[in-house]
TrEMBL record:
Gene: rpmJ
Organism: Plantactinospora sonchi
Keyword field contains Ribosomal protein: yes
Name of the molecule in the record: Large ribosomal subunit protein bL36
Record-linked Pfam families: Ribosomal_L36 (PF00444)
PANTHER family: 50S RIBOSOMAL PROTEIN L36 2, LARGE RIBOSOMAL SUBUNIT PROTEIN BL36B
Keywords noted in UniProt: Ribonucleoprotein, Ribosomal protein
InterPro entries: Ribosomal_bL36 (IPR000473), Ribosomal_bL36_sp (IPR035977), Ribosomal_L36_bact (IPR047621)
Keyword DNA damage among UniProt keywords: no
Family: Belongs to the bacterial ribosomal protein bL36 family.
Length: 40
């Protein structure tokens, strides 16, 4: 899972969902699972 400086580019892609898990912000994309990332 990638760590990016800004999740804004990934959360604007179609099918992406922003989730908080264990104090981290995680972006999970259901259409393209390659675009997973976390911040924090």
């Amino acid at each position: 899972m990638r760590v990016r400086s800004s999740l804004r580019a990934l959360k604007q892609k179609p099918g992406s969902v922003v989730v908080r898990r264990h104090g981290r912000v995680v972006v999970v994309n259901r259409t393209n699972p390659r675009w997973k990332s976390r911040q924090g």
